[in-house]
Amino acid sequence: MDAGYRCRVVTYDNSLPLSQITTLRVGGPAKNFVRCTDAESLIQTVGDLDAAGTPVLLVGGGSNLVISDDGFDGTVVQIANTETDWRSDHVTAGAGVNWDDLVAESIERGFGGLECLSGIPGAAGATPVQNVGAYGVEVGSLLRSVQIFDRRSGGLNWVDVGDLELGYRTSRLKRRNDELVVQVSFRLHEDGLSEPITYRELAGALNVAEGKRAPAAEVRAAVLGLRSGKGMVLDPDDHDTWSVGSFFTNPIVPQEHLPTVLTRIVEELGAEATVPQFPADLGVKLSAGWLIERAGFARGFPDSGAPARLSTKHSLAITNRGEARAEDIVELAKRVRDGVHERFGLWLEPEPVLVGCTL
């Protein structure tokens, strides 16, 4: 590797597992680990590894990964390019920029727009991959464009939002590795006000009417408070935050199938059971957390002695209580998924990327 590239190369052994670079804190060793701190070295390194036929695992903030206990038989490339370019109405950030740091700085600079996405762990480059969203706002509504390195052709191009095939927690970039996000550009509000507040819980916390805007700093504070109460802000001393956030996406039921699903729920739980529903592009989105709890999986399931448990604050999060292995996480996820299907006939889909393991 050219010494001019600012990469720190470390060969891992069995004493240095990949659990050290993931928020879930599970995962075995990799053969090699490369940390690239600028865009040029990132592109060159990945290109060289691809040309050599070396298996590559790309890792940003490690907040959406479940890596097997066997680790990764190849080279892990940590995306750590952190350049930022602030303009009057937008910011362009390197894929390795810490996402919440970017949100915080945007507010410190007097901008609005990103505040509802405060407290989400991970790197900026991962946000368009699964169209990250929270409290009524999705990254797709704020994106201007994404710079992508095409690992097949070697090309580097800016891609318009309309070409990313964004959907609920998905995009054309998800669950594929031939397109590497290098930089991301987001639009910002120059007036320092938030996106319209559409999430009822957040509107209540702010004491504002739904659809109104509020000072971005106030919205960020409220969002961080709400997320902290659900164990969704990273805290090394709180095992409820040793997770990938929500492990399952909310199921989207086509409109024509909704009556059958709702009838099944009533048959199982009684006429008074009302699952939370939200409009979605391809049907109706149901609350996965509600379904998990009504299928018999309470917060903290299975018990206080288990190495992997549902969060005690949020039933959608599967957490590492300190000694869990990837095997423990996956087995609990299977148990929850299968239990919801058995009770309600719905399959929950995992939100994180699984490396070397499957549900």
Observed structural traits:
359 residues; alpha+beta; 7 helices; globular
Strand order in the largest sheet: 6-7-12-10-11
Helix/strand/pairing class, anyone?
alpha+beta
Major sheet characteristics: 5 strands, antiparallel
- Report the helical percentage: 10-25%
Quote the beta fraction. Answer: 15-25%
SSE topology:
Blueprint lengths: L6 E4 L19 E7 L2 H13 L4 E4 L5 E3 L4 E8 L4 E3 L3 E5 L4 H10 L24 E2 L2 E2 L4 E8 L5 E5 L18 E9 L12 H7 L9 H14 L22 E2 L4 H12 L7 E4 L2 E4 L1 H7 L13 E3 L7 E3 L5 H19 L8 E3 L4
Parallel strand pairs: 2-5, 3-5, 4-18
Antiparallel strand pairs: 1-2, 6-7, 7-12, 8-9, 10-11, 10-12, 13-15, 14-15, 16-17
Explain this structure.
The chain has 359 residues and is an alpha+beta fold. 23% of the residues lie in helices and 22% in strands. The longest helix has 19 residues, at 326-344. 43% of the residues are buried. The mean pLDDT is 94.
